[in-house]
Request: fold
Amino acid sequence: MALQSLDIKNRSATTTPTPQARSTVEVAKLIDVSTCIGCKACQAACMEWNDIRDEVGSCSGVYDNPTNLTENSWTVMRFSEIEEQGKLEWLIRKDGCMHCADPGCLKACPSPGAIVQYANGIVDFHEENCIGCGYCITGCPFDVPRISKKDNKAYKCTLCSDRVAVNQGPACVKACPTGALQFGSKEDMKDYAQERIADLKERGFDKAGLYDPPGVGGTHVMYVLHHADRPQLYSGLPQDPQISPLVAIWKGATKPLAALALGLVALGSLFHYVIKGPNEVSKETEAEVEKEDAA
Amino acid sequence: MTNHWVDIKNADLVLIMGGNAAEAHPCGFKWVIEAKKHGSAKLIVVDPRFTRSASVADFYAPIRTGTDIAFLGGIINYLLTNDKIQHEYVKAYTDFSFLVNEKYDFDNGLFSGYNPEKRNYDKSSWSYQFGADGYVKSDPTLEDPRCVYQLMKKHYSRYTPEMVEKICGTPKAQFLKVAEMMATTAAPDRAMTIMYALGWTQHSQGTQMIRTGAMLQLLLGNIGVSGGGMNALRGHSNIQGLTDLGLLSNLLPGYLTLPGEKEIDYKAYIAARASKPLRPNQMSYWQNYEKFHVSLMKAWYGDAAKAENNWCFDWLPKLDKLHDVLQVFEDMYQGRMNGYVCQGFNPLAAFPNKGKLGAALAKLKYLVIIDPLATETSEFWRNFGEYNEVDSSKIQTTVFRLPSTCFAEEDGALVNSGRWLQWHWKAAEPPGEAKADTAIIAGLFQRIKAMYKADGGAFPDPVLNLTWPYRIPDQPASEELAREYSGKALVDLTDPKDASKVIRKAGEQLDGFAQLRDDGSTASGCWIFSGSWTQAGNLMARRDNADPWGNGQTLNWAWSWPANRRILYNRASSDPSGKPYNPKRKLVWWNGSAWTGSDVPDFKPDSSPADGMGPFIMNPEGVARFFAVDKMAEGPFPEHYEPFETPIGSNPLNTNPAAVSNPAARVFKGDMEAFGKAQDFPYAATTYRLTEHFHYWTKHCAINAILQPDQFIEIGEELAGEKGIRTGDKVKVRSNRGQIRAVAVVTKRLVALNVNGKKVHHVGIPIHWGFKGVARMGFLSNTLTPFVGDANAQTPEFKSFLVNLEKL
Reply:
């Protein structure tokens, strides 16, 4: 459950009002791709802090390992080799949950309280409430959540909400040796990003910029990119991520209708009860069932 | 490092060449990023592979493996030809003007004095001209054709940009871009740092590669200054400490040297090392050699070391030749050894030609392994299928495995690349029966000593008389050893200027090596560590990160050898009059009566600039040497030689068959025959480390194994196309010594180079896999590498050899 110090702003499939009294600073992790050396210390720290271990895999012909996000790998480095005006660039991007301000996973989730958004902006999965339906995967424009084969529940980066709750940065940020990962208030991170972007522009990256996509209301994990005009160069980072229209329809126009339908079903049941009384099983039927069970 | 990690942030330009700091030293690499972020520094990477360091570089240039001297020699030629040097610096602080022996010569790849049978040089002509006053002759006008400047200019005039392209395969335009960027740091207020590691040391001419880099830095005035220097990035957390403490076959602690077998006279032994100044008013600090030597012998032998017995000089081993690891394994292979103690070392994985190493180990009667891990070496006798195809029934070697602690299970100091001795504290108790290395060695020593005492022996004195003052003899404490290295007074020490004044009482810790004496009144186990543990306590344990000058000089953080000095040769950061060259990054300067500044001056503290003392106080010349006189095996000026396995078969710089590869490198009989030729093995191979792993250790750790689980090799797209290999395919890589199988990573990061009219492809071979651990089983990559080392240091040539490749 939520920690005392983390106020919840939104909960999946719940209409109970969330607390409003306290004011909380919005946080963000900034990933400065231009100073990332792809050392995977963030991956190691994530495994250690969260007690998750993938299987020892194999080499598929690239440096990426594990090769994709899994229920046990909440962040992975993605390496891509591109040529820009005859010059080779090895773009290395740390992939993981973006902690959207408008989280598609939370919107899509039908299970009350399985996905929450804290007032500080972190989007967290509370697996004890997860029913394993996988709607969060459909809802995510970044293809982040993964369902565990072990318990059929969805997992992803928590932005170390447990650490942040006690005023510690995420484990990955703590482990990053070059300072490519930074953590702080979203405002400070944006300011810092501007310094880095100015430096990159001086070094000839005219299109350097911040990735904080408006299509999902901005994110609490942001990137400094040398080529902000073409985020897809970075192993397919979406150009303009949006919540899937399916989820938008479900949560938009159809949700009230569905709620109405659910309400009608409930009402029908009530009438049935009032008119017909409770459903009862006769003693004979019960004895027969028991006999079958014994056999 | 001449400088230190934090100081990297002061650089205006960073050259990473012969190393891959981002991958192999990611934590220290943060200072490169700092230099870029806050100092607008530019980063250049020169490497056969576009590495993770290159991924954050401002400029990358490819180079064929093993040709760095050609590249750097080309830069030297560029700087001299285009007059892009720091004139005042080179004139005042180097041997530019010194006159060289008339007999010194260089012709068609060989220097004067070569003996082809012995593969070595008579170095008598590699010397100076001396005047009647006994000092080296000098021509300050630099016009004498025999002065170092003129000889050097002539030597490197052959290293044109076209020649660089021909040898290195680096396109001329890219080479010139690097040269231009470097040349900007000839300005007194700009500095370049060079960061290198095994990419320079692991060649048959590795020491000379490093020298060439140092020469470049001297020409640009980048030695002794903040943000400059020659910075060797050490691989193991305490490998700097290993060399500092003399754990090489020819060294004693503190870079004192063992006598040779002909050096039986103590006085002559000292005189040969306590060099007298070769120029007027020079310090020639090694004149103090005897003080350090006697203090060492007092630390070892206590009262048994006396003036009458020459401080036990006769007990020191006298070297017949270098007994480096290659020599030891050659001896083992020839059946000349019975036993081998292997402490914190996995030679089967870490040394070249696994086949030869395994055969050598099988000839031993016993092998003792002291290690926290079950290493490949400890199971060299076990059959692991194709990964270690041996017949165990034919191997009779008895293997003892003594489990030891790892660094986190003990207190002590580690010496980092920047020469800082940083004390650390035990974080966990060792598992099972593991013991500290000190306890294991002490336990062995106690038993050996008891046996000598009881049974006698051929030469018991050095064993029976070794001082052993530790409270628990079987477990010397790190604190006790650290105090011993630092040193103490054995009697009350009086001030040499005032005999009535006692500066240290008997038994007290000394303040530093300046207090060491050659009369047996002081003891210090390692003179360069003297001052690390004083009467004030353990200075290595200090953790004050105050940076009062804002230049990263945290003098109260830990302790740095020598004398807590952070940047070596720092006198050279000021001009001859004692004024800082770069007012923005001042290190030390003359304040009118003394040297002072943000660092401990590497200089005589009260020597006025008017005295003309040079900043390179360890050299008897007082200046830095471009002309190495007789210090190097293969010549006073670095010359490009091909790797022993060369993909082009000749040396474009000469037509001499004796000078294709390093003419002075030692090659054992049988190993020369085991070198492959380009017609059978057409591809230039190089081995290296990946950031996800540390040597052969971390394949025992689950997390590292998850991050990089499986053995692979890297090839460029063009070669892959020729061979029909797609990324992820399995391939076989063969050298003349063996073969491995691995997954192919096909990449744009390795490009074919045009070398001497021929296309040369590289095959990149990471080293981290083996047959022990939790990562996937793999082949020891040193199955492939050649058994030959650098001519001076005998570091094996892991970085350049030849292979062939086929798709499976």
Remarks:
- The CA atoms of residues 122 and 254 of chain A lie 27 Å apart.
- Chain A has two domains: 8-249, 255-294.
